[in-house]
Structures are given as C-alpha cells and as structure tokens.
Design brief:
Layout lengths: L10 H25 L18
C-alpha cells in the first residue's frame, strides 16, 4: 500500500506574500478610489414584463 505525501505548505512565506499584497493595495487604494465610477443605472431583481413566445 502506498501512502500519499502530504502537500507541504509554507505558512511563513504565504503570510509574507499576503502582507506584501496588503501593503500594495493600501498604497494604491486611494488612487483607485478617485478613478472609480458608479454604474449609471443599477439593474437588480427580476424582470417585470413578460416577453411573448
């Protein structure tokens, strides 16, 4: 019977990359907020009119 090796997961490296990403987003975030625009009209919910088959 062969046993599968457990995948290695480097927690320190993962958290380091997550921290770098968070720092980048915190630096870039205010600039992106200035350029962000809301959609002209939101489309939500079910369609109220029925189309003929």
């Amino acid at each position: 019977m062969r046993t599968q090796k457990e995948p290695m997961f480097d927690t320190i490296q993962t958290y380091k990359k997550a921290g770098e990403t968070l720092d980048f987003l915190m630096k870039v975030g205010p600039a992106l907020e200035d350029h962000a625009q809301a959609p002209s009209q939101e489309k939500q919910g079910r369609r109220r009119n029925k189309e003929a088959a």
